[in-house]
Description:
Blueprint: H1 15-24, E1 29-32, H2 78-81, H3 87-92, E2 95-98, E3 105-110, H4 113-122, E4 127-130, E5 135-140, E6 146-150, E7 153-156, E8 162-163, E9 173-174, H5 177-182, H6 213-228, H7 234-249, H8 257-269, H9 274-287
Amino acid sequence: MTHAIPIRRxxxxxxxxxxxxxxxxxxxxxxxxxxxxPIGNCRACAGNACGGRPNMKTPGxxxxxxxxxxxxxxxxxxxxxxxxxxxxxxxxxxxxxxHPGGAGVTVVDLDDADAxxxxxxTLPPTRTVATTxxxxxxxxxxxxxxxxxxxxxxxxxxxxxxxxxxxxxxxLAELPEIVRALAEKAPxxxxxxxxxxxxPAPAGGGECRHRSPAYLERGIAMAEQRITEAASAVxxxxxxxxxxxxxxxxxxxxxxxxxxxxxxxxxxAKGESPRHCADAWTNARTALGM
Length: 290
């Protein structure tokens, strides 16, 4: 059974005390370092030598009872959280983290002002929590976690962790399809005879942030490089790259058919068909509401 983010106000500052309180309300918690990363593996667990929780596919501590396995160490068990084996971890922790998926929620992590502006213009309102550089938008419901779904935006839910930064403001909304769509792979389309497909550039009309042509040129060059250097999952890389380009450059009208052709050429050099390129481009525009 999953739980929604608690609505009761929390004023405690001690890490273990806060963790025990959040655990009592249904949030699987774990200690995080000051740099927001999980506590490092102990010697007994290095390289999963302990034999517990391979690839972190199931939640819970490993056999050594230490918080060694990132999100999978998150728990609501007070006996585990307060165990002597965890004492050093809580003493060294910089912040309390939690497993959103285990709490029944999805966190859209907006890392900067541009990402926040995109969310406010695109996503349905929900509970928001201020972060150092942006905001967490929290929705009720779970999905797979994906980093970099667009510039400055990560999705943290199942098999992931994030910082506990307080209750935030606003009512918790249901996880919308537009967020789920951001994590979807572009469909694989196989054609016996590839052919040239012309895709029109976005018509524009949005605010232009390109202070110089070099900004757009650099973005296209970086996108070409990302596709060219893909060693695996080429279909997914192409789709996510198209999504990133459109989210940053696609609303003002500066993106031309010549730019799109460069991206398609890079994708086809990795074995993608023209038809698949067109489908991935269309799917990315649909996911962004363009």
